[in-house]
Automatic annotation (TrEMBL):
The lineage of its organism: Bacteria, Bacillati, Actinomycetota, Actinomycetes, Glycomycetales. InterPro entries: GlbO/GLB3-like, Globin-like_sf, Globin/Proto, Globin_bac-like_CS, Hemoglobin_trunc. The keyword Kinase does not apply. It holds the Pfam family Bac_globin. Residues 1-20 are annotated as: Disordered. SUPFAM superfamilies: Globin-like. Gene3D superfamilies: Globins. Keywords: Heme, Hydroxylation, Iron, Metal-binding, Oxygen transport, Transport. Belongs to the truncated hemoglobin family. Group II subfamily. One of its GO terms (molecular function) is oxygen binding. Homododecamer. This is Group 2 truncated hemoglobin GlbO.
Length: 142
């Protein structure tokens, strides 16, 4: 999976001049946005017959927190994920689970619904969605 992250965007002022650079994380609303996204995602997961069995924990809150921390860090926010858990090593962490096309598609369906709930501006939605598609495909191991 690509390790590059779109850490900053350069918005323009009304006069067309570059505005001060801000991270993607800041541009989309920071912690509150990523919390809403992960909450909406795990609400979908909880009711999904394909996704729910992939989460062995009864309580999905710890998984939601891990995803939120990961996404925040990836998109230019706090580095809490790495501070608490080390390098993401996504493929290694997901290796115990069979992730084929069916699971990838279910994950994307849940994430698309969550992103639609959050309603990012179209330009940010497109960038994030393209990442989600690449990430989901990268996680396939069967």
């Amino acid at each position: 999976m690509p390790t590059d992250s779109p850490r900053s965007v350069v918005p323009l002022t009304p006069t067309g001049q570059p505005a001060p650079t801000q991270s993607f994380y800041e541009a989309v609303g920071g912690e509150a946005t990523f919390k809403r996204l992960t909450d909406a995602f795990y609400e979908e997961v909880a009711g999904d017959e394909i996704m729910r069995p992939l989460y062995p924990e009864e309580d999905l809150a710890p998984a939601a927190r891990r995803l939120q921390m990961f996404l925040e860090q990836y998109w230019g926010g706090p580095h809490t994920y790495s501070e608490e858990r080390g390098h993401p090593r996504l493929r290694m962490r997901h290796a115990p689970f069979t992730i084929g096309e069916r699971e990838r598609d279910a994950w994307l369906r849940c994430m698309r619904s969550a992103m639609d709930t959050v309603e990012l501006a179209p330009e940010y939605d497109q960038v994030m969605w393209e990442y989600m598609e690449r990430a989901a495909d990268f996680m396939r191991n069967s």
